[in-house]
Amino acid sequence: MSTTVVKRRGGRRRAALTGRAPADTPASIWNYLFLALVFVFSAFPLYWMLVIATSTDAALAKLPPQVVPGDQLLTNLREVFSLQDVYFIQSLANSAIVSSVVTLSVLFFCSLAGFAFAKLRFRGRNVLMVIVILTLTVPNQLGVVALYIVMGEIGWNGTLLAVIVPGLVSAFGVFYMRQFILEAVPDELVEAARIDGATTMRIYASVVLPAVRPALAVLGLLTFVGTWNDFQWPLITLNGTDYPTSMVAISDLASGNYVLYRRVLAGALVATIPLLIMLFIGGRQIVRGIMEGAVKS
User: Fold this and answer.
1) pLDDT digits over 164-196, tens only?
2) Which of 41, 60, 79 is the last residue of a domain?
């Protein structure tokens, strides 16, 4: 019997004993190939955006199309930042302010509300939680007109407050934090802290927050990305002002009778960089938070 056959039988025997397939099985190879294809299809729009953002108008008209990045990125970015009617630099700063404030507020209020719904006993708790869940079924578009009227009565339309205040708390964040706290924080730990004389806010700060850091990272990243990419409501309340967000500024770049796509995608490339940085920093926390929230110990 050859050495190769012995190795194969040994690998199968070990796989049968451990319950795991060998690392070089055809199934694992096909899984990697499938993941590689998914990655290519997912990353191709970003690569194509880079190609267009670094090209000239003549390169865009080529057939077959150009698939290699050009050398005109700085020129295109200079045009984007120099436009007087777009305020692109200001829009990036506004998006950073809005996304940061909304993210910090959502993390605080949603974790606090999730702690209350998960571990505190008060009258009407279940009814309020059902109402919070039901709000998730209502499309945001249905409340745009009413929200615009309310912001107009307050005098906030055309300001960043009109974008920040409606997003300070999210129903999804409250529900997500409640479910995570139910599994991550034992009732015995809360009762022990209460016996030691800790107040509710002290329990929240010293017991709950350290246990839900992965969930906070996931919620914070999702909130930041969602707020940064929000387009409809900022377009309605900030359009035509000197305080747009990055998505509204990109839509202004794409407006007009003749659209320069190299300029539009150069602005989109700059607006995408903060999101890629956030995903690179918090990617591991996302996986950890999702796994800890989905798998019971």
Assistant:
1) 999 999 999 999 999 999 988 888 988 999 988
2) 79
